Amino acid sequence: MNTHSLAIGVCLTDECALELEAFALACGTEAAFVRLLVDEGLLQPLVVQPAWRFGGEELARVRRIRRLQHDFEANLQSVAVMLDLLDEVERLRATLHRAGLAAR
Amino acid sequence: MEFKDYYKVLGVERGASDEEIKKAFRRLARKHHPDISKAADASERMQELNEAHEVLRDKEKRAAYDRVGQGTQPGQAFQPPPGWDSGFEFSGGPGDFSDGADHSAFFEALFGAARQRGAQGRAGPGAEPSRAHRGRDHHAKIVVPLEDTFSGATREMTLQSPEMDAAGNMTLRERTLHVGIPKGIRAGQQIRLAGQGSVGLGDGLRGDLYLEIEFAPHAHWRVDGRDLYFTLRVAPWEATLGATVNVPTPDGVVEMNVPAGSQTGRKLRLRGRGIPASPVGDFYVILELVLPPADDDKARDVYRQMARELAFDPRAPLEAAA
Asked: Are residues B35 and B96 in the same domain?
């Protein structure tokens, strides 16, 4: 079966960033877990005032955290170390990429 | 639909112990995890590994899988016999990720219907018969040309998703979506398409579809967040004496001044000519000096003349330090 449709999407950024409950749902998790990640310093809301709101990059980050937790049976502290290292690799790759030294 | 050999996916014998299965999964997960591996098919590999692990580590699912798998060759066309899974509950242990994970059509055919029945059953016996369950969200990547972010665009994409039909069988449904790519979007951002995920159960809402934006590599420009980078090749006299050169930017060709006394690696900024996000990105030009070849007498003479007339020693700092 094949159907065609025009889908109107919204980009999850600034004005369309998600509030805590909706964001947790989009991540396939619960608000308490998102709060824990923020408290533990693994995640920062895109918007802090007047209420936390989260965008697409945060969504990808929480999904990555859940993947790492699940696939390696890792606890949050191990995931935090993995995220720091992955962020560092990403920064170094971006530096090479800006200099035109490595294709991404 | 093709039969999937989960034992082969994990590289273990059919009689492998739980410990061997766990070890094989861990070893392969470290190698193929999409957060670590840069291979283009890392996500698919990991999905396959997770699926194989999910089935083979669970006694009930493994027994059921072994039963249907008897006499079926990998890759062979496969259709589970009707009612084959009666008697299996597939409860899903603690930490079961299956609600959020994507599975192959093969997996859905075997375990999808049972899971959905399970979800209904969990509403409790005697509860409202068609307790609503929201459909699953889907997550996908969409690779678009960089140009899409400069003016916005509409892109067509085809999605395949397993869905349960009225008779309770899993079928693959193919959909073509036209997705609006908003102007100023950046790589890594997500477009949310409400109601484009899986159908819900009962009166449950449909899930949503999330599309992560990725730019296809561009012939001239490199992207970093909202900024663009461009390597501009210049002649030695342009760099040393200064020049006005043409630079291709998203807004068209612009004239740019190369300041006198520039060296290779100098970074020049064209403010506000990057990705039209809010705030708008910048366009960076990195200079690369290119020396004219000396492949005829005339060119060699010019170089010789420079050597004679210019008191220039590129290694002077080295000698001063020695």
From this structure: no
Compute the nearest-CA separation of A26 from chain B (Å): 7
Residue B321 domain flag: no
CB contact under 8 A, B222 and A98: yes
The pLDDT-based confidence of B264 (bands split at 50, 70, 90) is very high
Q: Residue B132 sits in which domain range?
A: 73-215
* B240 and B208, same domain (yes or no): no
Which residue of B144, B155, B191 is the best one to mutate when testing the A interface, meaning the one whose CB has the most A CBs within 10 A?
B191
CA–CA gap between residue B101 and residue B138 (Å, rounded):
9
Interface predicted TM-score (ipTM) of this complex, two decimals: 0.83
Q: Which residues in chain A are closer than 8 Å to B196, comparing Cβ atoms?
A: 7
Q: Is residue B65 part of a domain?
A: no
Burial of B240 (0-12, 13-18, 19+ CB in 10 A): middle
Query: Which of B141, B185, B192 is the best residue to mutate to test the A interface, defined by the most A CB atoms within 10 Å of its own CB?
Result: B192
Using one digit for the tens of pLDDT, what is the confidence trace for A49-101?
A: 889 999 999 999 999 999 999 888 899 999 999 999 999 998 998 888 888 77
- B39 and B145 belong to one structural domain: no
Number of residues assigned to chain A: 104
Distance CA B194, CA B199 (A): 12
B229 reaches A (C-beta below 8 A):
yes
